[in-house]
Amino acid sequence: MTTVPKLASELSSQVNDRLNQVGPSGIREFDQKISAIPGIVKLTLGEPDMNTPEHVKEAAIQSIKDNDSHYSAQKGTIELRRAISHYLQVSQGLDYDPETEIITTVGATEAVCASFLAMLNPGDKVIIPTPAFALYFPLVTIAGAEVIQLDTSADDFVLTPERLEATLAKEGPAVKAILLNYPGNPTGVEYSQADIEALAEVIKAHHLFVIADEIYSELVYGVEHFSIAKLLPERTVLINGLSKSHAMTGWRIGYIAAPAEFAASATKMHAFMVTSPSNPAQAGAREALENGLQDPVEMRAVYQKRRDFVEQAINGMGLEMPTPSGAFYAFVKIPAAYGKDDVKFAKDLAEKAKVGGVPGSAFGAGGEGYIRFSYAASDENLKVAMDRMTTFVKCL
């Protein structure tokens, strides 16, 4: 019989101390806890239920047939970086040199991680408006810096320049950067051009980096996305990717666009982490950006219809939620009977109504008392989930 090896007892505590300071993803952890419930409809993960467009898949298949099986340039193929550069120019009016200012990463997650590790030193502070994607917090901690959570729930989930100024005055010069994710996960709230212009003035005056995670920029409803990189290109680290816009989460293609000096440091970290991205995935991403700009438009129409359905159902239950103007999430205030105990509500909803959502507190202090649902799910599953939740809420 094979014996499963166990770590030597004297080594059991000899791991990265910073890693010990953080817990696992609250989103994934809760999703795993409820996955075994028979018949549950899960609206937990931000994963498009649609398939990658056929022409994108064919480009990747052709890459494999062409024996494109060797290492690409560490920053990604120059063809893809040129496609990214052109896409940013036509979609946002941004100019980035594909040779020196663009890095192809293994998903936007790696882009965020490489950027933090390239930027931060022990003692630095990073402001993160909350609620926010839970991944950001542990990555800052692992990089040795301190997270400053800035609760935006009292301001309709939009960071105001006044609140940012007050936080900077309180935290002092150790603040090196601010992270902005918009349209936002988990709220779906998009910042207007006026919002971004006001924040840019504060960021520039305080000499901060801004990490702009704009992964949902193609999924906006009735508004136009305005990148802060238009105003602060010299201090913005722009992060984006193909996961959400083209239903390519499993392909793991993201990118960083930043001034050449920072991009050089981020490239070094990126290369230590992953060497280079997958060639077939890069071929598919290039096809998506060169010939698939209409693909997100078609997906956006589907998501907007689903958003309207979910919002109507939630309002019909007497519950509140900000109208999402981007992404594909409904961030719902839990029933008053639960106070702010979003974990208990999410647990009861899963066990008693067989509907899965993520407790809002997983997204930081600003999410307490809310629950997040992803409407990147089939129309059928959304209807079943909303019907079950309606019945559950009525019985409270």
Name the descriptors.
single chain, 396 residues, alpha/beta, Aspartate Aminotransferase, domain 1, Aspartate Aminotransferase, domain 2, 2 domains, seven-stranded mixed β-sheet, three-stranded antiparallel β-sheet, 13 helices, 12 strands, 41% helix
Task: Describe the 3D structure.
The protein has 396 residues and is an alpha/beta fold. It has 2 domains: 9-51 and 295-394, Aspartate Aminotransferase, domain 1 (Alpha-Beta Complex); 70-291, Aspartate Aminotransferase, domain 2 (3-Layer(aba) Sandwich), CATH 3.40.640.10. It has helices spanning 17-20, 26-34, 54-65, 78-92, 107-119, 136-142, 161-171, 193-205, 260-274, 279-291, 295-316, 342-353, 379-394, and strands at 41-42, 102-105, 125-130, 146-151, 175-181, 209-213, 236-241, 254-257, 329-333, 355-356, 358-359, 370-374. The strands form 3 sheets. It has a 7-stranded mixed beta sheet with strand order 2-8-7-6-5-3-4, sandwiched between helices. Strands 9-12-11 form a 3-stranded antiparallel beta sheet. The chain starts with 16 loop residues before the first helix and ends with a helix. 48% of the residues are buried.
